[in-house]
Design goal:
The complex is a heterotetramer of chains A (about 575), B (about 725), C (about 325) and D (about 260). With about 575 residues, chain A is α+β, with helices and mostly antiparallel strands. Chain A is about 30% helix and about 20% strand. Chain A is built from 17 helices and 23 strands. Chain B has 23 helices and 22 strands. An 8-stranded mixed β-sheet of chain B has the order 6-7-8-3-9-10-12-11, with helices on both faces. A 7-stranded mixed β-sheet of chain B has the order 17-18-19-15-20-21-22, with helices on both faces. In chain B, strands 2-1-4-5 form a 4-stranded antiparallel β-sheet, with helices on one face. Chain B is of the alpha/beta class and about 725 residues long. By secondary structure, chain C is mainly α. Chain C is globular. Chain D has about 260 residues and is mainly alpha-helical. Chain D has a single domain, classed as MetI-like fold (Orthogonal Bundle), CATH 1.10.3720. The longest helix of chain D has about 35 residues. In chain D, about 60% of the residues are buried. Classes of the chains: A alpha+beta (about 575), B alpha/beta (about 725), C mainly alpha (about 325), D mainly alpha (about 260). Chains in contact: A-C, A-D, B-C, B-D, C-D. Chains A and D meet through helix 2, helix 8, helix 9, helix 11 and helix 13 of A and loops of D.
C-alpha cells in the first residue's frame, strides 16, 4: 500500500485534470466530474481532487528520465492481439512489436512523426521508398521473374545463430507451411536458390510488380532463426512457441510473453546495426482495449505513451497539456463502403454511382474524424497513385439517389453492416444510416464480427446490403489494395478476400491483372489507375476518407519515427529523450 | 395452539381491578396451606410470581385485541398453579409477560405489574429481566421440536443454561432422560417428542429456578407420554420445590397436575381456587359449563353432549357487562350492571360472578346441568357372522346404484393393509411402516372409532379407506358412494380463496342442475350444519374455527357418502366446540344413516362417538370391540395403558417408554418392550386378534365380539 | 453424509455433460465459419479444405461431439480462432485472475452482507439506515459503479489503481503455485506483491460485490428476523441469554442457510458482473478474454470461458450445498 | 399505492415516441451546425448529445422503453413458462415432478447470465436473441418458486378434500392449487424486474443486445466509455437511467410485496 501510494503521491501534486480545459464547442462546466459525482454518488471526496486550474505538468510518465542506465517504456495495445508471429500476425496493434523484433530483406523508409499542436492531418502524398534491411542490395531480372538479394554479413538471430540465405529459405518455406493469412504473398514464388550464404535468389512463376512491396510489408516474410524453428517446431512449425517468444534479428527480443495480457521486450545487445542503440532497455507492452483506461494511465504515469485509438476529444484535451505532445500520424487507413450488387435497389450501376454521390463524406469526416482525416478522392489509399488518377470524387448530391429510391418499387428495407472490431466504423454507419433513411430507405444497422465478414466473399449468404469497414493495404503497391478489396472473389485464387459483398467487375479485374504483370513501372501505374477508374465507376466500393492516427508521447521524447504503410508502429529503437 | 396468544379481553373500558379483591390475607392463607403441604418448610413467604392488575392490549392491524384485563394472580413457592382457559383467554400472554418476553413488534400496551421475586418484568431494564430469567425462571413451551435449536446438540443447549457439563448431565438425568450422557450428543430431530420435552424441562430447571412457566407443555405429546411428563412435573415439585405456572386448555390435565387452578375467560380471571374444590364444585357458570362439556370416559352414551351456548368471546369488542353474559344460562338482570368483580367465596376461592350462592342453584344453572339430552337414534345394524370375509359380492370401490348402502351391508372392508412411506431417498431402504397388516370392516350406518397414539397408523388407515393413500398390499373395498372425509385442521381443508358457496357447490358439479337449484342445495347444506345462509359468499378465513369445521362437515355430507371418515375433527377445537362437533356428527349420522370411521387419540371421544372401538399400535389393530366394553374392560395391555393415561383421574405413568419409531417396529408383539406383562414369548410371536375364547377372527367380523391381539388374552379372561 | 456428497457431485457432473452438449450445439449454429476464422480472409480453397479436415468438420456430427467431449476431458477446449492457440492455454492464463477476483468479490459480498444483514435486522436505531441504503445500492448497474469508482478513487483521489492486477513497477511477480497473486506473494515471500495485488483488487471486487452483497444481506436480514421470531429463540431468551448471544449463537446460524443458497445463486449473476467489471478495469481474466472474443466471433474461446465459468459455478454450488448440510444437521439424511 | 409505479412506468414507456424531443437515430443539427458532444443543458440538449449529434435524452428515453418492455417480456415469459412447469410438476408429483424438476435444477445449476452471453454470442447479437437467451435462463427460477408453493399447497388437506369431492385433475390444479401460488409469483416477479434490468443492461453493455444504432442503455454506456473522461454524459446518462429504472422497480416491487403480505 505504502509503496503504491508513494508512486501515486509523487504524481499527484502535478496531476493534470484533463477534463478541465474549456472546449468552446461543448461548454462543459469546468468541474463537471465534481458536479456529477457530488450529485450522483453524494460523496464529498471530490473536494480534495482537481479543484484548481488545468494545465499542470503531467506525469513524466516513465519516471526513468535520462541518467540511469536502464530505461523502461510502458505502452499498450488497444486490442488483444493475435500471436506476434510474422507468419501469422495479420492485424494492427502488434506491428510495433513485430517491427522491433523481426526484420525482412527490405523495408519501407522511416519517416519522422510531425508534432502538431493542432493535430492537423495530411495524408501521405506519395509512395514510401523501399530501402535495404537484411538485404544490402538487390536486382530484378528484366522479365520480372527473378529477384537476387545480397544479404548483410554479421547479422545474428536473438539466439546468437548467424543469419544467412539458408535461414531465409527456411523462413520462406515456413510461411507457406504455416499458411496463415499473409501466406499469399509468396504464392507466386516458384523456387528459391541459395548459391552462397550471402546470396538469396527468388524465382516467381509470373511477373508481380508488387513483390518488393510484399517483402517490405510488415506482413511480409521475415527472418526467423532456423535453430529456433528446429528446436521448437513441434507439429505446428513452432507457432505455439513463437506466441510467447521470438526468433528474429531485430533490435528487441521478447523476454516475456503472456498472450493477451503482457509482453516484455528487451533490447538485443547483439544487434547488427551499430548505429541503432535502443535507449529503452525494456519495453512493457500491456493490453488495454479501453482507450479511456489508457488515457487515465497515461495521465497517472503508468503508461509512457498512447500509440493509437484516441478519440478526437481526448486528443484535444492532450493538446493543451504542455507535458505531453500529440503527433499526427499519416496512415493508409481508408474507411470505405461496400455495396451489395445483388440487393435489388443497388442492382444497377447508375444507382450505385448515385449512392456514392449521396454519401455526405464531408460531414462524416468533420463529425467523426475532425482534424484526423480528409475526404478521399481516389479509390486507392492516399499516395499509392499520383494525384488526379483513379479518381472517385463525385459531387455530393443526395437528390439523384433519393429519386432512384422513390422510383424503385421493390423492398426498401436494407441492412447496413459494419465491422464490430473497429470502433470507428460504428459512428460512420450510424451517420450514413440517417442519410439513407432521408433518401427513403428503411435501414437496419448491424455489426458483424471479422470472422463472419471473412466468410462472405465465398459464401454471401447473410451478407448485408451495405457494409462500412476501415482497412489499410497489406503493402503499399496499389495492386495489393485493389486485389483484396475489389477483385472478384476467386474460388481458386487469393484475390477478393475483402471483397465482402462479392461484387464482380471483370473489366476492372482484367486491367488489374495486366497491371500486375507489367514490368514497366509507368505502364503498370497507368494500367492500375485505369483499373481503379473502372472499379470506381462500377460503384461497388466507395472510399470515404483518408484517416490518420495520433500518438501521444511525453514532450521530452524525441526520435518518433514510423513507416507510413505500417500502421500503429512507431519505431521503438529510435525513441530517446531530447538531446 | 399457537403461542403467544393475545387472547380475549372484551372489557377494555372497564376500570375494575382485582388487586383490591385479592387481599394479602387470602394469599397468606394459600401460602400457609401450601407450606403446610410442603413439609412446613416455607421460609420465603412472598409469592415467587405475582401480577397486579395486569392488562395487555395488542394492536393487530386496526383492531385492538385486549388479551388481559386487570389480572392479578400469585404463585407461591413450591406450588403448581394451572392457568386454564379456552383459546383466546389470554393465558399464554400472561405466561410470556411473566417471562418478560412479550412480542416487541408491535409492542403491546401493558399496564399493571408482573413481578418475579420482586423484580417487575414489565418495567425493569432488559439486563435485570435477563438476570431474573437466568436465575429465577425456567420455561417449557408447547412444541418441543421448534422450541429447541435444531442446529445445536441438545447437550450444548442444556449446558448453555446450566453452565457446566456435569450440571447439564445431572439435569438431564433429573428430567428422566435415559443414557443422558450419550443423548447430549444428539440433535433435537434425533430425539422423540417426549425426550425433547424432557430436555426442555432439564433446561428450565437449570440454576434451580423459583418458578417454571410451562405453556401447554403436554399438548403436542401422546397421552402416555403426557402422563409421564405430568408425573415428572409433580415429582420435580416434590424434590426441588420448584413452583410451576402451568398454562393449559385441558381441564383434565389441570386437574391432574395442579394444586391450584385459575380459570380465565375473556382476559379475566373467572374463578380461582384449590384444584380439588374448583373441579368438584365449580362456582362460576363458565367453569361449570367447561367441566360439563368435557367428554369423559364415564359419561352417558348415545346422547347429545352438553355444549356451551353462543359464540366464543370476541376479544376486540368492549363489553360493559359480564363477558360471559351472552352465553350464561344462569344470567340474571344484574349481570348487566358492569363487569363483575372477583369476590371471595372461601378462604382461598375467588369468583367473578355476581350471582349469590342462593341464586346459584336457580333454574338457569340447572338448565345446563340437566339439560334434556336428545338421544341418538342408534343406527340399525345386524351382525351376520355367516358372511364370508372374501364375499365376492363386495364391489371394489363401486358406486352403489341407489347411493345409500343397505343397513345390512358391509360398507368398508380393509384386508391386511400394508403401507410404508420411504424415508428420504427411495433406495435407502429406510421407511416408516405405517400399516403392517391392519384389517377392518365397517357395517352400514355403524360408527367405528380408531384409537392410537402417533405412529399407530390410524390416519394412514383412514386415508387408505378414502383412497387418498394407495396401499402397498392388501385391499380396500367400499360399498356405495365414495367416502368423504372430515380433516383435523378444518382451516387447511378448505380452499382459502374459494367462497363457501363454491366449496360446497363443487360437490354438485357432476349433477346437472340449474344455478338456482344448486344454490338452494348449498344453503340447505349450510342449514343442516347450523350455519346461516349469509356465509355463502364468505371465504373460509372469515369464519371461526368451529364454523369452518361445520362447513367441512357440510361439504362431506351434502351428497351423503356411504361412509364418513373423520380424522381427529375435534382435536384442534376448544372443549366446548368439540362437543358441538361431536353432536353434529352424531346427528348427521343418525339422520342420514351413513357409517362413520372416526380416528382419534382421545379414548373418551372415541367411546362417545363410536359403536365399536378399534385400538391400533404400530400399524396393527391390537384390540377391537364394542366401545363401552373396551373402555370398561380393556383386554390388551396397551389399551389398559391408554386408559390409565387419560389425565384427570389422578393416576400416573401406567407405562414407561414412548411410542417406538415406526421405522423399526420390534419383532413379535410390537408392544412387548413397553408391556408390563411381557414375557419371553411376546418377543417371538406376533399374536392375532382373538375372542376371549381364543377364536382367531382377524378383525373381519364386526359386531359385539371383543377381540384382542395378546397372548394373555384368553387366560386373562379366564382368570377374571 | 457421504452418500449425500456423492449424489450431489454426481448431479453436478450430469449437468456439466448436458452443458457440453449445449456448447457443441451452439457451436454448430453459430454464424462463425471456423475455417475462415483460422485462416483469415485470403486463404486458398486448398488451405480451407485442409483446415476443415484438420478441424474435423468433415466428419459426422456425433463423431465430432464425442471427440469434442473427449477433448474436454483432456482440458482441450479447441483452438481459439483469434489467438490461434489452444483455448486451454488462454484459460490457464486468465482463469486464476478471474478466480482471484471472484473469490475476493464473494468474500467482500459476504462480509458486506453480514454487516448489512445483522445491522439491518436488529431493533437498534441504525437498522433503518442500513435498510435505507440497501434499496438504492441494489440498483446500481456494475458498470456505472465502476465508472464512478474509477473517476473518484483513481482519477480524483488517486487512492486505488483502476487497471490490471498488479503495478508494472512490481518486478517479477510470482506466477504460481495458486495463481492468486495475493497468496503467491506471501508464499514467495514478497509481501509487496500481495499488497499491490490487493490494492488492485479492491475497486473491481467491490464493484462486483455490491449487488450480490445486498441480495444476500436482504435475505440474511429477513431470515434473521424470521428466526428471531421462532420458538427456539424464545427458549434461548427464556434461558436468560444476552441478546447478542441469542443473535449470534441461536439466530445467525439458523439464518445463514437461505443466505448461503442466495450466495450460490448470486454467484451466477456475479460471473456476469465479472465480465463487465473485467473490461472496465482491464482485469486480465476470462471475462476480459470473453469480451475480446465476442466481437471477433471466436466461438471456441467463448465456449471455453462459458464452460469454465459454468463448471466453477456448478462446483461451488455443490460445495455450498454440502456446507449447508454441515451447518444444518437436518439436511443430512 | 407504490405498486402503481409499474403501470406508470409502462405508460411512460408507451408514450416515449410522444415524449422524446428528437428522433433517437438521427443527429440533430443546430444553428451552429455541429451538434456532436454538446454538454447537458446546452443548445436544448437536456442530457447532452453524442458523437454524431444525437440527443442523448431521446436515446435514453427510447432505451428505457426498450429495457422496460424487454424486462416485462422476459418476466412474463418466465412467469408463464415457469408457472406452467411449476404447476404441472407440483400438481402431478411423482415421476413428472422429478423429471421437470431435474430439468429445472439443471438450468438453475448453471450461471444463467453467462450461458445467455454464450447463446447470444453464438446466435449473433440482436434484441430478439438476447430476449430469448435471457428468457431461456430465467424461467427455472419461477418454476422452482411455483412448484414449491404448489407442493406446499398440495400438502394441505383442502386438496385431499377436493380430490374426494371428485374434482378433475385440471380443475384441481387451476382452482385449488394455482391461485395459491399467484401471490408468490407476482411478488417474486415484481422484485425481479430490477435484477433483470441490470442483467440485461450488462449483456447490452457487452454488445449483446440490439445492435446499433438502436438506443439500448447498456450499449450506449459501453459506446460512451471511450469518451468517459472527456464527454462523460454519453456513458453516464444511460447508466443513470438504468439505475433510476431499477430503483423505481424495486420500490414498486416492495410495494407489491407489502400489498400481498409477503416477507
Amino acid at each position: 500500500m505504502r509503496k503504491y501510494g508513494g508512486i501515486i503521491q509523487k504524481n499527484r501534486g502535478t496531476s493534470h485534470c484533463f477534463g478541465e480545459q474549456n472546449r468552446a464547442k461543448s461548454h462543459v462546466p469546468s468541474n463537471w466530474r465534481s458536479v456529477a459525482s457530488f450529485a450522483l454518488v453524494g460523496i464529498a471526496l471530490m473536494a480534495s481532487a482537481c479543484s484548481n486550474g488545468s494545465g499542470g505538468s503531467s506525469g513524466n510518465s516513465s519516471a526513468t528520465i535520462p541518467g540511469s542506465t536502464s530505461h523502461t517504456l510502458n505502452i499498450a495495445f488497444t486490442e488483444d492481439t493475435q500471436p506476434l508471429d510474422p507468419d501469422v500476425y495479420y492485424a494492427g496493434s502488434g506491428n510495433i512489436a513485430i517491427q522491433a523484433m523481426y526484420e525482412g530483406l527490405v523495408q519501407y523508409v522511416k519517416q519522422p512523426l510531425t508534432y502538431t499542436k493542432d493535430a492537423t492531418f495530411t495524408p501521405p502524398s506519395s509512395r514510401t521508398q523501399i530501402i535495404p534491411d537484411l538485404a544490402s542490395s538487390w536486382t530484378t531480372s528484366p522479365d520480372g521473374l527473378t529477384y537476387t538479394f545480397t544479404l548483410r554479413t554479421g547479422v545474428t538471430f536473438h539466439d546468437g545463430t548467424p543469419f544467412n540465405s539458408e535461414a531465409m529459405k527456411e523462413d520462406f518455406t515456413r510461411r507457406t507451411e504455416v499458411n496463415g493469412g499473409p501466406a499469399y504473398m509468396l504464392a507466386d514464388v516458384s523456387s528459391v536458390d541459395t548459391p552462397d550464404p550471402q546470396t538469396f535468389v527468388v524465382h516467381l512463376s509470373k511477373a508481380n510488380n508488387a513483390f518488393m512491396d510484399y517483402l517490405a510489408s510488415t506482413y511480409g516474410p521475415k527472418a526467423i532463426s532456423p535453430a529456433v524453428l528446429n528446436a521448437h517446431g513441434g507439429n505446428d512449425f513452432a507457432q505455439k512457441y513463437l506466441t510467447t517468444h521470438d526468433g528474429g534479428t531485430g533490435p528487441y527480443m521478447m523476454t516475456k510473453g503472456v498472450s493477451g495480457q503482457e509482453y516484455v521486450l528487451s533490447s538485443y545487445s547483439g544487434y547488427w546495426d551499430p548505429t541503432v542503440k535502443p535507449w529503452y532497455s525494456t519495453v512493457n507492452i500491456h493490453i488495454i482495449p479501453d482507450i479511456g483506461t489508457q488515457q487515465l494511465e497515461l495521465e497517472k504515469g503508468q503508461l509512457s505513451m498512447i500509440l493509437n485509438g484516441l478519440t478526437t476529444q481526448a486528443i484535444q484535451s492532450f493538446n493543451s497539456n504542455s507535458s505531453l505532445h500529440t503527433y499526427s500520424v499519416p496512415t493508409l487507413v481508408t474507411p470505405a463502403v461496400w455495396v451489395n450488387p445483388s440487393t435489388p435497389v443497388f442492382s444497377s450501376k447508375k444507382v450505385r454511382q448515385d449512392f456514392d454521390a449521396a454519401i455526405d463524406k464531408k460531414t462524416i469526416v468533420d463529425d467523426i474524424f475532425p482534424g484526423r482525416a480528409v475526404v478521399a478522392n481516389q479509390i486507392f489509399p492516399s499516395g499509392e497513385l499520383p494525384a488526379g488518377s483513379a479518381m472517385q470524387d463525385p459531387t455530393y448530391d443526395p437528390s439523384k439517389f433519393a429519386k432512384d429510391v422513390s422510383a424503385f418499387s421493390g423492398s426498401k428495407a436494407i441492412i447496413l453492416g459494419y465491422d464490430q472490431a473497429d470502433p470507428a466504423d460504428l459512428p460512420v454507419a450510424d451517420l450514413m444510416q440517417t442519410e439513407l433513411a432521408a433518401a427513403g430507405l428503411q435501414v437496419t444497422v448491424k455489426g458483424y464480427t471479422d470472422t463472419v465478414l471473412y466468410g462472405f466473399p465465398t459464401n454471401p449468404k447473410g451478407a448485408p446490403d451495405l457494409l462500412v469497414d476501415s482497412n489499410w493495404p497489406d503493402a503499399q503497391a496499389p495492386d495489393t489494395w485493389a486485389r483484396i478489396v475489389m477483385y472478384t472473389p476467386s474460388p481458386t485464387g487469393v484475390a477478393g478476400g475483402l471483397n465482402y459483398l462479392g461484387c464482380s467487375d471483370p473489366a476492372g479485374d482484367s486491367l488489374l491483372d495486366q497491371a500486375l504483370a507489367a514490368t514497366d513501372p509507368s505502364q503498370a501505374q497507368t494500367l492500375v489507375a485505369q483499373a481503379g477508374e473502372e472499379y470506381a465507376s462500377y460503384g461497388c466500393w466507395d472510399v470515404i476518407a483518408y484517416r490518420g492516427d495520433t500518438v501521444v508521447a511525453p514532450s521530452w521524447m524525441s526520435g518518433l519515427v514510423h513507416q507510413v504503410p505500417i500502421p500503429d508502429a512507431v519505431v521503438l529503437a529510435d525513441l530517446k529523450p531530447v538531446g | 395452539m399457537a403461542a403467544p396468544d393475545p387472547g380475549i379481553g372484551t372489557l377494555a373500558g372497564n376500570e375494575m381491578t382485582m388487586s383490591e379483591t385479592s387481599p394479602p390475607e387470602s394469599r397468606q392463607g394459600i401460602r400457609d396451606q401450601v407450606d403446610g403441604r410442603l413439609h412446613g418448610s416455607g421460609s420465603g413467604l412472598d409469592a415467587v410470581a405475582s401480577t397486579e392488575d395486569l392488562s395487555i392490549t395488542f394492536a393487530r392491524g386496526r383492531q385492538r385485541i385486549h388479551a388481559l384485563q386487570g389480572v392479578s394472580i400469585a404463585v407461591q413457592p413450591g406450588e403448581i398453579v394451572a392457568l386454564v382457559g379456552e383459546s383466546g383467554s389470554g393465558k399464554s400472554a400472561l405466561g410470556l409477560c411473566l417471562l418478560g418476553l412479550l412480542p416487541t413488534r408491535p409492542a403491546p400496551e401493558v399496564a399493571g405489574t408482573a413481578t418475579i421475586c420482586g423484580v417487575d418484568m414489565l418495567t425493569s431494564p432488559e439486563s435485570e429481566k435477563r438476570a431474573i430469567r437466568r436465575s429465577r425462571l425456567g420455561a417449557v413451551f408447547q412444541d418441543p421440536m421448534t422450541s429447541l435449536n435444531p442446529t445445536m446438540r441438545v447437550g450444548a443447549q442444556v449446558i448453555e443454561a446450566a453452565g457446566s457439563e456435569d450440571e447439564a448431565l445431572s439435569l438431564l438425568e433429573a428430567a428422566g432422560i435415559p443414557h443422558a450422557r450419550t443423548r447430549m450428543r444428539s440433535y433435537p430431530h434425533e430425539l422423540s417428542g417426549g425426550l425433547r420435552q424432557r430436555v426442555m424441562i432439564a433446561m428450565a430447571l437449570a440454576g434451580e429456578p423459583s418458578l417454571v412457566i410451562a405453556d401447554e407443555p403436554t399438548t403436542a405429546l401422546d397421552v402416555t407420554v403426557q402422563a409421564q411428563i405430568l408425573e415428572l412435573i409433580r415429582e420435580l415439585r416434590e424434590t426441588k420445590r420448584t413452583s410451576f405456572l402451568f398454562v393449559t386448555h385441558d381441564l383434565a390435565v389441570a386437574q391432574q397436575v395442579a394444586d391450584r387452578v385459575v380459570v380465565m375467560y375473556g382476559g379475566r380471571v373467572a374463578e380461582s381456587g384449590p384444584a380439588g374444590a374448583v373441579f368438584d364444585s365449580p362456582y362460576h357458570p363458565y367453569s361449570a359449563g367447561l367441566l360439563d362439556t368435557r367428554i369423559t370416559l364415564d359419561g352417558p352414551l348415545a346422547v347429545e353432549l352438553p355444549t356451551l351456548a353462543g359464540d366464543p368471546v370476541d376479544n376486540s369488542v368492549v363489553f360493559s357487562s359480564c363477558p360471559y353474559l351472552p352465553r350464561c344460562p344462569s344470567a340474571q338482570a344484574r349481570c348487566e350492571d358492569g363487569v363483575p368483580e372477583l369476590r371471595q367465596l372461601d378462604a382461598d376461592r375467588w369468583v367473578a360472578c355476581p350471582i349469590s350462592a342462593d341464586e346459584y342453584s336457580g333454574p338457569g344453572l340447572v338448565s345446563i346441568r340437566s339439560k334434556a339430552r336428545r338421544a341418538f337414534q342408534p343406527a340399525p345394524r345386524t351382525l351376520d357372522l355367516t358372511e364370508s370375509p372374501d364375499s365376492p359380492e363386495i364391489q371394489l370401490r363401486g358406486e352403489a346404484s341407489d347411493g345409500k348402502a343397505s343397513s345390512h351391508q358391509v360398507v368398508v372392508t380393509v384386508n391386511d393393509a400394508e403401507k410404508s412411506f420411504p424415508l428420504g431417498r427411495r433406495d435407502s431402504g429406510r421407511a416408516v411402516l405405517a400399516l403392517r397388516g391392519a384389517s377392518l370392516r365397517v357395517m352400514a350406518g355403524e360408527s367405528v372409532a380408531i384409537v392410537g397414539e402417533s405412529g399407530s397408523g390410524k390416519t394412514t388407515l383412514l386415508r387408505a379407506i378414502s383412497g387418498l393413500t394407495p396401499l402397498d398390499s392388501g385391499s380396500v373395498q367400499i360399498e356405495g358412494r365414495s367416502p368423504q372425509m372430515v380433516f383435523q385442521d378444518a382451516g387447511s381443508s378448505l380452499t382459502p380463496w374459494m367462497t363457501v358457496g363454491d366449496i360446497l357447490g363443487e360437490r354438485l358439479r357432476k349433477e346437472r342442475m340449474s344455478r338456482h337449484a344448486r344454490r338452494a342445495r348449498v344453503i340447505e347444506a349450510l342449514r343442516s350444519v347450523e350455519l346461516s345462509a349469509g356465509v355463502v359468499d364468505a371465504k373460509p378465513h372469515q369464519l371461526s374455527g368451529g364454523q369452518r369445521q361445520r362447513l367441512a362437515i357440510a361439504r362431506a355430507v351434502m351428497v351423503p357418502p356411504s361412509v364418513l371418515l373423520c380424522d381427529e375433527p375435534t382435536s384442534a377445537l376448544d372443549v366446548s366446540m368439540a362437543s358441538t362437533v361431536v353432536n353434529l356428527l352424531g346427528r348427521l349420522r343418525s339422520d342420514l344413516g351413513i357409517a362413520m370411521v372416526f380416528v382419534t387419540h382421545d379414548l373418551a371421544v372415541a367411546r362417545t362417538v363410536a359403536d365399536r372401538l378399534c385400538v391400533m399400535y404400530l400399524g396393527r389393530v391390537v384390540e377391537e370391540g364394542p366401545a363401552d366394553l373396551v373402555c370398561s374392560n380393556p383386554g390388551h395391555p396397551y389399551s389398559i395403558a391408554l386408559l390409565e393415561s387419560v389425565p384427570g383421574r389422578g393416576r400416573f405413568s401406567p407405562v414407561s417408554g414412548e411410542p417406538p419409531n415406526p421405522v423399526n417396529p420390534p419383532a413379535g408383539c410390537s408392544f412387548h418392550p413397553r408391556c408390563p406383562q411381557a414375557e419371553a414369548a411376546c418377543s417371538a410371536t406376533s399374536p392375532c386378534l382373538k375372542t376371549g375364547q381364543g377364536e382367531e377372527m382377524s378383525g373381519l367380523h364386526p359386531g359385539d365380539h371383543h377381540l384382542v391381539a395378546c397372548i394373555h388374552w384368553g387366560g386373562r379372561l379366564g382368570s377374571s | 453424509m457421504t452418500s449425500f456428497v456423492v449424489k450431489r457431485v454426481g448431479a453436478a457432473l450430469g449437468i456439466v455433460v448436458v452443458l457440453t452438449f449445449v456448447m457443441f450445439f451452439l457451436q454448430r449454429i453459430s454464424h462463425t465459419d471456423p475455417v475462415h476464422a483460422m485462416l483469415g480472409a485470403g486463404a486458398s480453397p486448398a488451405a480451407v479444405r485442409a483446415e476443415a479436415h484438420r478441424l474435423g468438420l468433415d466428419r459426422p456430427l456425433v463423431d465430432q461431439y464425442f471427440s469434442y467431449l473427449k477433448g474436454l476431458t483432456h482440458l482441450d477446449f479447441g483452438t481459439s480462432y483469434r489467438l490461434r492457440e489452444p483455448v486451454s492455454t488462454a484459460l490457464a492464463t486468465y482463469f486464476p485472475a478471474t478466480m482471484e477476483l471472484t473469490a475476493y468479490s464473494l468474500l467482500f459480498a459476504l462480509v458486506i452482507a453480514l454487516i448489512l444483514g445483522v445491522g439491518g435486522a436488529g431493533k437498534w436505531k441504525g437498522a433503518g439506515v442500513f435498510r435505507a441504503i440497501m434499496l438504492p445500492a441494489a440498483c446500481i448497474p456494475p458498470f456505472l459503479l465502476a465508472m464512478f469508482g474509477k473517476i473518484v478513487f483513481y482519477e480524483h483521489l488517486n487512492l486505488l489503481p483502476a487497471a490490471g492486477r498488479i503495478s508494472s513497477s512490481v518486478a517479477n511477480p510470482p506466477t504460481g503455485p495458486t495463481g492468486f497473486l495475493t497468496i503467491d506473494g506471501l508464499i514467495a515471500g514478497k509481501p509487496n506483491v500481495t499488497i499491490d495485488a490487493f490494492i488492485h483488487l479492491l475497486l473491481p471486487a467491490l464493484c462486483i460485490a455490491l449487488i450480490p452483497a445486498i441480495s444476500i444481506g436482504r435475505i440474511l436480514r429477513s431470515s434473521i428476523e424470521q428466526t428471531m421470531q421462532m420458538d427456539h429463540v424464545r427458549t434461548a431468551r427464556a434461558k436468560g441469554l444476552k441478546e447478542r448471544s441469542v443473535l449470534l449463537k441461536h439466530a445467525l446460524r439458523n439464518s445463514v442457510g437461505p443466505a448461503l443458497s442466495m450466495a450460490g445463486l448470486q454467484l451466477g449473476l456475479m460471473f456476469a458482473g465479472v465480465v463487465v467489471i473485467e473490461i472496465m478495469f482491464n482485469w486480465p481474466g476470462v471475462g476480459w478474454f470473453l469480451a475480446q472474443s465476442i466481437p471477433q466471433g471466436d466461438f471456441p474461446a467463448i465456449a471455453g470461458v462459458t464452460l469454465v465459468l459454468s463448471i466453477t459455478y456448478v462446483a461451488i454450488n455443490a460445495a455450498v450445498d454440502v456446507l449447508q448440510a454441515v451447518a444444518d444437521p437436518r439436511i443430512r439424511v | 399505492m407504490v405498486a402503481s409505479v409499474f403501470p406508470a412506468i409502462t405508460l411512460v414507456a408507451l408514450l416515449v415516441p410522444i415524449l422524446a424531443p428528437d428522433n433517437p437515430l438521427i443527429p440533430v443539427t443546430t444553428s451552429s451546425g455541429m451538434s456532436s458532444f454538446v454538454a447537458p443543458g446546452h443548445h436544448g440538449f437536456l442530457l447532452g448529445s453524442d458523437l454524431i449529434g444525437r440527443d442523448v435524452f431521446s436515446r435514453v428515453l427510447y432505451g428505457i422503453r426498450t429495457s422496460w418492455f424487454s424486462a416485462i417480456g422476459v418476466i412474463a415469459s418466465g412467469m408463464i413458462i415457469g408457472g406452467a412447469v411449476g404447476l404441472v410438476a407440483g400438481a402431478s408429483g411423482g415421476l413428472v415432478d422429478s423429471i421437470l424438476m431435474r430439468i429445472t435444477d439443471a438450468f438453475l445449476a448453471l450461471p444463467g447470465p453467462v450461458i445467455a452471453i454464450c447463446v447470444v454470442a453464438a446466435m449473433g447479437p440482436s434484441l430478439f436473441h438476447t430476449l430469448v437467451a435471457v428468457a431461456v435462463v430465467w424461467w427455472p427460477f419461477y418454476a422452482r418458486i411455483v412448484r414449491g408453493e404448489i407442493r406446499a399447497l398440495a400438502g394441505r388437506t383442502h386438496v385431499d378434500a377436493a380430490r374426494l369431492a371428485g374434482v378433475s385433475r385440471f380443475r384441481l390444479a387451476t382452482r385449488h392449487l394455482l391461485p395459491g401460488a399467484v401471490p408468490a409469483i407476482v411478488v417474486t416477479a415484481s422484485l425481479d424486474v430490477a435484477n433483470l434490468l441490470i442483467t440485461m443492461a450488462g449483456l447490452s453493455f457487452l454488445g449483446l443486445g440490439a445492435p446499433e444504432p438502436a438506443p439500448e442503455l447498456g450499449a450506449m454506456a459501453a459506446q460512451g466509455m471511450q469518451f468517459l473522461l472527456t464527454d462523460w454524459w454519453v456513458a453516464v446518462m444511460p447508466g443513470m437511467a438504468i439505475f433510476a429504472l431499477a430503483l423505481l422497480s424495486n420500490i414498486a416491487g416492495d410495494g407489491v410485496r407489502k400489498l400481498w403480505g409477503r416477507s
